[in-house]
Structure prediction request, 433 residues.
Amino acid sequence: MLSPFASPLYVMAKPVGSICNLACKYCYYLEKGFLYSQRVQEVQKVQKVQEVQGVQEVQGVQGTPKPLMSDATLEALIQQYIESQTQPQVLFTWHGGEPLMRPLSFYKKVLELQRRYAGGRQIDNCLQTNGTLLTDEWCQFFHENNWLIGLSIDGPQEFHDEYRRARGGQPSFHKVMRGIELLKKHGVEWNVMGVVNDFNADYPLDVYHFYKDIGAQYIQFTPIIERIAPHTDGRHLASIADGQQGELADFTVSPEQYAHFVCTLFDEWVRQDVGEVFVQLFDSTLARWMGQPPGVCSMAETCGHAGVIEHNGDVYSCDHFVFPEYRLGNIHEDSITAMMYSPRQRAFGQAKRKGLPQQCRQCQWLFACNGGCPKDRFATTTDGETGLNYLCTAYQAIFEHLAPYMDFMREELLNERPPANIMQSPLVNGNQG
Prediction:
């Protein structure tokens, strides 16, 4: 039996919690602030009492009036996270909300603490941003310290601005494009993440050509799937844990749309861009054809090694499972290692495989999708069994379409030849559609 420490541990950090300068309609994280609103109110009450009594600091209460990661929590995170790693390289990922809502001084403090606790390990940083707050100063910092920047943009302006707007309804596209130009100007390494929704899913080539036009070489697509189920604390998204089915949000991509989007985009990529443009979904699919880990958790056999730490030190099982039922504890009370390798978290990860319905277990494409992300397993099988992924029919169509091309590229790799040879193969040049 493998040791529970055999797989690397990864925790995404939320230095501002769910705070963001935008209010994207489909954002699954904005509402997470409701999980802490009651705690914030309690802290504020204590502060008012202590202010009357002349006490300057609040003691003994978890949380802060604003959901910002404190210096103490930041230091605990960095020390514990580095110590939890079993590899010589350590990757920190800063996420949100919008992580650039913290000042540059915060991330300079990050580097200072990383150097203090590195212990001879190589430390890398990546940061996911909406790009609207990027400046010359930010980009110079990222370049000088070799940070990788993930930038969220959903395609050309009409698609991006459909859902990605500021709180007052103002569009964000032009600010994002300005951010991209600044990243290029300063030589910052960057990639793009696009959300596939009910609108842009019908225009895969428009989206793909746009990404190529702006110079994106590394592309990640995320299908948006959410259900609406109001909670008493103000949250409105359903989770697998609460048992509420809810209604699909209107921005949710349909399985038919997603299959069309991926297959159409693949046909373009496989004819022109293999080895030049790297699409995470296609790279991960080829990895599964090779019997290798996919590099993306949704396609892995099990999960549970990618947690998230909130601004106050709370650790959750996964970025998409930041619900009360999946809180593992707090780094001020327990270590990241203890929480992420706990029996509870291991059970969470194993449940992905153990919870597969019989229809999935008998599917020829199980090796490729492994049932998809557990958060989306709210559909039922043809014989009424629960636990089927909402995108099941899309996955079936996608893998059936990609299979002959993946078979070819697999053989090229096994024979130590570049998979880009697919672009000169009969498959691409007309002998098979």
